[in-house]
Amino acid sequence: MKRTDGKTDMKMKELCPDERPREKMISKGADSLSNAELLAILLRTGTGRHNVLETAQMLLKMAEGSLSGLVSMSVEKMCSIGGIGQGKAVTVAAALELGKRYGREICRLDRVPITGPEMIYRMMLPEMRGLRHEECWVLYLNRANYVIGKERFSKGGLDSTTVDVRMIVKTAIEKLASGVILVHNHPSGNPTPGQTDIKLTGRLKAAMETFDISLVDHVVMCDDRFYSFSDEGMTVCRI
Length: 239
Hints:
Elements (H helix, E strand, L loop, with lengths): L20 H8 L6 H9 L8 H11 L4 H5 L3 H4 L7 H21 L10 H12 L6 E7 L5 E9 L9 H10 L4 E7 L9 H15 L4 E8 L4 E3 L11
Parallel strand pairs: 3-4
Antiparallel strand pairs: 1-2, 1-3, 4-5
């Protein structure tokens, strides 16, 4: 099929069997496929102008070539690509959500006591990787530092989110928690806390101490690194 730019689109059936994503997965295994090829299997079909692999590559390009960008992409935005309707977009979103949930399962650390900020980072990475907005989560610990609860308390914009200290304290009391860990992300990629983060930490610590509850740590996360108030000797109780 000729395109308006003079190049020729290749239909999937014109590829040799070893190059077709489905056949390649069956013969060589899923780990042999590129991200675009795996997406092509989910999309199933292309359009008159582009085969399914080309459509998958366009979707990845819109996500800046990363799966983390795709995770945060809305169904509506996926549908802006020709050949991707709501059904296909929902299928992709569902597959990505399953991947996130699998990540949570293999990172289950709630059966062992929290011993440091790296464990907190590993526990929360499946929840916060790839986010393009700020979120604030709270982990509740018992006296042995086991996680007895985990909640998202707020969801904000690109560089801020609102945290209700009173609600965190109230929930900690209801759960009979002995300690609390605050976790939020910086989509900018720089985990260094700002003055707002520092002031929030101090306010939360003071409020918790009123009820004999420890603020164990405040961890600021990015996809590839984190900042721990506890490690840096800020105003929290060390683990």
